[in-house]
Amino acid sequence: MSDDMRIPRNAENDHTDEMAKIRRDFIKEKTGAELEHTGQYSIDTAVLPGNVENFIGIVQMPVGIAGPVHIDGEHANGHFYVPMATTEGTLVASYSRGMRVINECGGVKTTVVEGWMQRAPAFIFDNARQARDFGIWVTENFDKIKAAAETTTSVGKLEHIQQWSVSKTKYLRFNYTTGDAAGQNMVGKATLIACEWIKANSPIPCFYMLSGNMDTDKKHSHLNMLHSRGKRVIAEIVLKKEVLASVMKVDTKMLAGATTLANTGAHMAGAAYNGPHSANGIASVYIATGQDEANVVESHAGMLSHQLLDNGDLYMSVTLPSLIVATFGGGTGLPTQKECLEIMGCVGKGKANKFAEIVAATVLAGDISLGCAVIAGHWVASHDKMGRNR
Predict the structure, then answer these.
(1) Domains delineated in the chain
(2) What does DSSP say about strands 169-177 and 108-119: parallel, antiparallel, or unpaired?
(3) CA 261, 263, 265: angle at the middle one, nearest 5?
(4) Which of 30, 116, 216, 235 is most buried, judged by most C-beta within 10 A?
(5) Model confidence, pTM
(6) Which residues are tagged catalytic?
(7) Which of 52, 320, 290, 302 is nearest to 181 (CA)?
(8) Which family is annotated (predicted)?
């Protein structure tokens, strides 16, 4: 590649307004793109190292506020306004409508069941018997492996190691708690040190790959549905028959029947989520609050459950077994993202479980709203009136 094609960089300090302009001018010369709006921003470029390379400016994303939503959680308790970054008209209005139903039914109960972050190395041997015996040794030496892993972090704690034998390979899945960080990089470093300790001390000679791809990083997997990745969080509510009829113009029996029908469709399609649209709420909240947007592919998976009660009310719940969220580290400390977290009282340490409960409640609100809109025939009409169809 010729030098005039290389993106300009400054080896000493690349995150400056000056370098951003130099790169914008470079892109304009090469492509003709003006980048007038991209180059207008209010943040200090000094906060960007560790979040982006070859910085040229800011993409301005519309942010709307949904809510309030009444949450009865162990960590999130009270009424919350939820920032949602989106370009999809009707989305914020739809979530707010679902939140109104939740409020008039007494609020949503939220529970964080457990939370892990994984790194899954693969150890390779000469034969299957060696791999089996190695697994026994790993179990017997867990405390020493844990001690080695935790030398790299004051926050991450190795809680357990899962094992699978395939051919002459032993797949291990290290499960950590990671405080208020999402923790992928944290557990990667910790597991590397643990694997080096294992390699040096194992009575059976071996070599390893740091990821055998069973950590399913930024990929959906059924393993996460069963064993959790990130937070396993549940949001549940009893929808009162009269409230649903008044606000949504839908009978609870109709919603129960439609949900059963949708369950079958999702099962046939092999969908990762059987409800209407968990990814919409998760993605918009993630973008607003500085989460790693690629984690939506894991986080949106889950189960919408329901039960029609004898009195005509409808129990409904959302279970998100791999909701990966952070309130500390990564993009959460950037100025606008931090402001959006502040709206929910979720900035900094000790707030990740609270944030997870708010996200789960938001997903449930969206599913209630869209599910009812499809039944009542408001789905297409609302997009014609408020969305991109107009």
Answers:
(1) 12-60 (no CATH), 63-114+231-385 (3.90.770.10), 121-209 (3.30.70.420)
(2) antiparallel
(3) 75
(4) 235
(5) 0.93
(6) 88, 292, 383
(7) 290
(8) Belongs to the HMG-CoA reductase family.
